[in-house]
Design goal:
Number of helices: 3
Distance between the termini: 21 Å
Structural class: mainly alpha
Length: about 70
């Protein structure tokens, strides 16, 4: 749940930047650029929304499979 989301978010941010066409020489170069320009918080952009969705997904799963 929450721990996995926090761990995976920086990789998703880097992947998204690669997908939208940022040409900086690969994932590691993009990570360095994010850290230099936005700081560590730049790698965790979007983590709040991702964490906010977990209770909804969990409650739907619980209601569906434990009914």
């Amino acid at each position: 749940g929450a721990i996995g989301s926090v761990v995976v978010t920086p990789f998703d941010v880097i992947k998204t930047r690669l997908q939208v066409g940022e040409k900086s020489g690969g994932g590691l170069a993009i990570a360095r650029k994010i850290l230099a320009e936005e700081g560590p918080a730049g790698l965790f952009r979007g983590v709040t929304l991702r964490l906010a969705r977990i209770p909804f997904y969990t409650s739907i799963t619980l209601a569906t499979f434990d009914g």
